[in-house]
Amino acid sequence: MSGLTPKKLAESLVEKHDRFIAEYGDELEKSKQVLMLREKRDQLVHWMEENGSKGKFAREFEDTEREYKGLMATFKPKGQSYYEGLKGKVEENKKARSFWLEKAGGTKA
Question: pTM of the entire structure?
Answer without folding.
Answer: 0.77
